[in-house]
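Q: Sequence in, structure out?
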Amino acid sequence: MTTIIPDYINLLAAEFEKHRDPERADQMHRYVRNLFTFYGIQAPDRRAIMRDFIRDNGLPEFSQLPQMIEKLWDKPERDFQYFGMETSYKFRREFDFTTLDMLEKMIIGKSWWDSVDYIATNLVGPILIKDPDLQTEKSGQWLVSNNIWLQRTAIIFQLKYKKKTNLKLLADNIIALSDKKEFFIAKAIGWALREYSKTDRAMVIDFVSQNKLQPLSHREALKWINNHPN
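A: Exactly. Output:
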């Protein structure tokens, strides 16, 4: 379905406006350290609005997705970025390496863990799993970017890979950032290791014992193992 993106987003804004809850919006605003404003719509309700909106108005063409994302990222309410991420997921089978430019802009624009984690694991991950060389190339660029959100992406994009995880790359990326005390980096390292411990607990135990990690990373890495001793 061909859509005119500004009109499409205006229609979406009108739907969100119908469900505005100022009190809850203020709570959400404070929860994200006052970084973003909200309509005050809870996630299940927002997804229901999104489902009905797409049913009634269709989706943009894949070629229009970057334009739509740019417009959504210009909007102050966080609900628009959620819509952009979740709509992008519907196009994931059409993604290729050229889509990474758009995804990187999504990561570094309006950055916070809620958007970065979704983009890294659900949108970037499915692209890079197809190309190990590109995994190394892109994560290497992110590591030296000095952007904590791209660096976090370098650690967690493999989160859902399980047995397909590139262990050497994961280890190298973790070691490259292991001395950083930044909360969102240390947390990402622990999260990535904790998730992989569900696939290979012995590897994670060995890695943690042989490498100096931040206390937060160390604690998070072993959390699942400690809660599942057998």
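The chain is about 65% helix and 0% strand.
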